[in-house]
Input
Amino acid sequence: MSFDVAFLLSTFVKLVAAVPMTLGLFACSVSLGAVFALGITYCRVSGGPLLSAFARAYVFVFRGSPLLIQMFLIYYGLGQFPAVRHSLFWPVLRDPFSCAVLALALCTAGYQAEIMRGGLQAVPSREIEAGRAAGMSGLLLFRRIIAPIAVRQALPAYSTEIILMVKSTALASLVTVWEVTGTAQRLISQTYRTMEVFLVATLIYLLINFIIVRLMALVEYRLSPHLRERPVSASDGGRQGEVHG
Output
């Protein structure tokens, strides 16, 4: 099977033009989802039965139902109610981009909340007790001990969720947001060259995810200085030689 190089290059240029839309969806939804997730995590670990029940129900609904259905319900379903159409939120809810961001954010918030909760639970109790024994206040204890350890523990799972969110932006084309996948589908409807167009789209997603993976690895490296190999100095080498001698 031979490929038309000129067509592949022109397709690449057209799909790259849609990358800012994909990145905009990704950045807005992940950021808004993180804000939602912080609130849900607080409700889950606060100890209040009502708040905890709300957080559990939220996580169950948004992790247990397909994102596609959630997006359709937000974009097409909410507009069916006159109270919504006459509310202050209607200018936002009738915009495809805003609805796509909201759907993605609400969905990822359920996953991010569980990741954050797992990170908090992974903080050793002895570290917290040591901080309290040292006279740290609640805020200082969280900033110096709990948050750094929780972030390090949650980062691998969080990076996976970030990659999944990049791929989930492809569903925004179903509500007329023309990101990379939506643009690819429009090109296929015009050229009927499914294989070439989707190969180029796959390459673009792989490049985006590769960059994000490397950035997340850099963050994890920066936050884990205790796991780095300590360089062996000349004095250390001399001591090791004396011991072995």
